[in-house]
Amino acid sequence: MDQVVNMAAMALGAALLLVTFYDLFQTVVLPRPAVNKVQLARIVVRPLWRVWRWVGLRPAASRLDRSEARLAAFAPIALLALFLVWAFALVVGYSLIIFGIRDEFRPHLGDFTEAFYVSASTLVPLAYGDFVPQDGLARGLIVVESANGVALAALAVTLLFELYGAFRSREEPVVALDALAGAPASAVQLLETAREKGMDGILKATFDEWREWSAKVLESHLSYPLLIYFRSSHDNEAWINSFAAVMDSAALMMSSMPDAPEVGSAKLMFTIGNHLVEDLTWVFRLNVAADSPIIERSEYVAAITRLKAAGYDAHDGETHWQMFAQKRGKYAPALNRIATYLALPPAPWVGDRSYLPHRQRRRRTTAPAPRPAS
Question: 18, 37, 146, 344: which has the highest count of C-beta atoms within 10 A?
Answer without folding.
Answer: 344
